[in-house]
Amino acid sequence: MNNLENYSNGSGIFVQIGSGAGDLDKRANYRDGFTEFIKKLPRNRIKQIILVEPNPINIPLLKECWKDYSEAIIYQLCVVTENYIKDEVELFYCPDDAPHYQVASINIEHIKKHYGENCIINKFIVKPKKINDFLKEITVQEIELLSLDVEGIDAEILLDIDFKKSNINFLSFEYIHLENQENYVKEHLINNNFEYIGKGVDHNGFDYLYKIKKNYNS
């Protein structure tokens, strides 16, 4: 994360898609890499913190996590791919993932991957928002950092982002579930003038960090 910590000339707009309970999840040892990164920044570096979390159970804790930051805006919705056509999303989870259901996913196979084929499956019903529509709506300015962890559809979302219309400086995303689409994601980023610079914000080291070449000042 040193690449980000040493960077100081951005827009001050930070976006996290998949915010969970912030740094208030006991099962995660009260840690969240994006939250830790932002809270270490000088306050004059922060103009806006945009947080997206589909799971309604996590919204109260997310509000508590960011209560001292008037710059924080929380959206309770599920970011989806461009070909998603329904007006609601079934977000699946296993009761064994209580109390915050951090593995909840639109992809039921993602739940089974973590908790087994025979696990109990419950679901939330949440609002969807297509990724490019969302990025266009939240700001017309540069996004200094987009942090992405969408539990099982990371590759699909990354491949759908129209980077020519979205002004993103740094991109941090979880790579451990990209599986056979990892090379397609890397190619998509390279074709859009991004380059890999190391590990991203995840405190477990599960994120890749990419930067846009034309916007980066070393």
Account of the protein in words:
This protein is of the alpha/beta class and 218 residues long. The protein has a single domain (2-215), classed as Vaccinia Virus protein VP39 (Rossmann fold, 3-Layer(aba) Sandwich), CATH 3.40.50. It has helices spanning 2-5, 33-40, 59-65, 108-115, 131-138, 154-160, 182-191, and strands at residues 13-17, 48-52, 72-75, 78-80, 89-93, 122-126, 128-130, 143-148, 168-174, 194-199, 207-212. β8 (143-148), α6 and β9 (168-174) form a beta-alpha-beta unit. It is globular, with a radius of gyration of 16 Å. The two termini are 14 Å apart.
Blueprint (SSEs and pairs):
Blueprint: H1 2-5, E1 13-17, H2 33-40, E2 48-52, H3 59-65, E3 72-75, E4 78-80, E5 89-93, H4 108-115, E6 122-126, E7 128-130, H5 131-138, E8 143-148, H6 154-160, E9 168-174, H7 182-191, E10 194-199, E11 207-212
Parallel strand pairs: 1-2, 1-8, 2-3, 4-7, 8-9
Antiparallel strand pairs: 5-6, 9-11, 10-11
Structural descriptors:
two-stranded parallel ribbon, 218 residues, alpha/beta, Rossmann fold, 7 helices, seven-stranded mixed sheet, 25% strand
Low-confidence stretches: none
Question: Beta-strand percentage?
Answer: 25-35%
Estimated structural class: alpha/beta
Q: CATH architecture, please? A: 3-Layer(aba) Sandwich
Kindly give the count of domains: 1
Distance between the terminal alpha carbons, to the nearest Å?
14 Å
Work out the number of β strands: 11
Oligomer: single chain
Residue share in helices?
A: 10-25%
User: How large is the count of helical segments?
Assistant: 7
Rounded radius of gyration (Å): 16 Å
Q: Tell me about the largest β-sheet.
A: 7 strands, mixed
Strand order in the largest sheet = 3-2-1-8-9-11-10
If you average the pLDDT, what whole number results?
A: 92
**CATH fold descriptor:** Rossmann fold
What series of H and E elements makes up the topology? HEHEHEEEHEEHEHEHEE
CATH class: Alpha Beta
Q: Shape, please?
A: globular
Name the CATH superfamily classification: Vaccinia Virus protein VP39
